[in-house]
Amino acid sequence: MERRARPVTLRMIADEIGVNVSTVSRVINASDTDARRWASGEVIERIRAMVIERGYQRNPQAASLRTRRSGLVGVLVPRLQDYVLATIYEGIEEAATEQGISTFVTNSLDVPANQIARTEIMLSRRVDGLIFGDAHTGEPFLDELAERGVKFVLVSRRAGKHVSATCDDVMGGRLVAEHLLAGGRKDIGILAGQPYASTGIDRTAGIVQACRDVGIDIPPHRIVHGGFDAPGGHEAAARMLEASGCPDAIFAANDFAAIGAMGVLRERGISVPDDVAVVGYNDTPLAAELPIPLTTVRSPMHEMGRRGLDLLVALLRGDEVDSVRLAPELIPRASSAGAPSKM
């Protein structure tokens, strides 16, 4: 009877190259950057070449027993169909795959009770850590989770002092203010999103402060909260117009809310951009394809996801990590072109 070949082990590779087994394990399981912390470039190349040549296969069950890790990360988002969070999740999954980690995602519908329930389900599946895209400011849940020793990071939204990977949304709001003010717009209305989301809070703070810096105050009646989707933007813009008349510019904290606002203006015969300039946020693909292309702030959504996963891996490794703020970029288009007309 033919004898089955003995499986290749880390010990075999380590003995042949002349390094510790731990070095081989780290090189195999780490990114290029992390691998260089434990071995020279030459040793890394020799290890990886031998892994391929000898057909070494990682044993996930044995690895889990040794490290008490499942290799699984849970991700919570407000809504699975949300383009922004879907793009962020693509970045998370891409980075996770590169590091041999599996992910699964669920949605909370931005309801705190759902967030708590979904989190407990994920923890029951023995995830190594969690990534939240649905953080609510002022809620104690994340603080309580941290006290339990659960490792997690936030993406898209920040909350408290928890580690996060986000866009610099305050700067994004400032970019919008500078653009609108340069175009002669001084009566600015803001569709600020949901009051519990740091994205809307920070974007609003940025534009309000930048206007204040040049002596223009945005009054409270010009700041209206509502959903981040097109129906939410439509409803919030309608409330603003009915309560305090038409501004000469509207900044929505999300592209889809901006699209909803443009619908209200169209229904009322108000011209964009001649009467009202409209600016959104995130630079979703639809923004450039509208009949009146939408000026927006581009946020690095995919990179945000990648950086969030990297931060979580570092936390799980026991490293000290700081939150990441990625730079926004203003993308001017026709919806804010030209000076305002006299209505």
Structure description:
This protein has 343 residues and is an alpha/beta fold. Helix content is 45%, strand content 13%. The protein is built from 13 helices and twelve strands. The protein has helices at 10-17, 21-29, 32-35, 41-54, 60-67, 83-98, 112-124, 141-147, 169-182, 198-213, 230-244, 255-267, 301-317; strands at 72-77, 102-107, 129-132, 152-155, 164-167, 188-191, 223-224, 249-252, 277-279, 296-298, 324-326, 329-331. Strands 2-1-3-4-5-11 form a six-stranded parallel sheet, sandwiched between helices. Strands 7-6-8-9 form a four-stranded parallel sheet. Helix 6 crosses helix 13. The chain is elongated, with a radius of gyration of 25 Å.
Summarize the structure.
With 343 residues, the protein is of the alpha/beta class. The chain has 13 helices and 12 strands. Helix 1 (10-17) packs across helix 2.
Strand order of the largest sheet: 2-1-3-4-5-11
Span between termini: 93 Å
How many runs of DSSP E, i.e. beta strands? 12
The SS-based structural class is alpha/beta
Percentage of residues in strands: 5-15%
SSE order, one letter for each helix or strand: HHHHHEHEHEHEEHEHEHEHEEHEE
The number of helices is 13
Task: Give me the Rg, rounded.
Answer: 25 Å
Unreliable spans: 60-67
Q: Assign a percent range to the helix content.
A: 40-55%
Global outline = elongated
Q: Largest sheet at a glance?
A: 6 strands, parallel
Query: Whole-number average pLDDT?
Result: 90
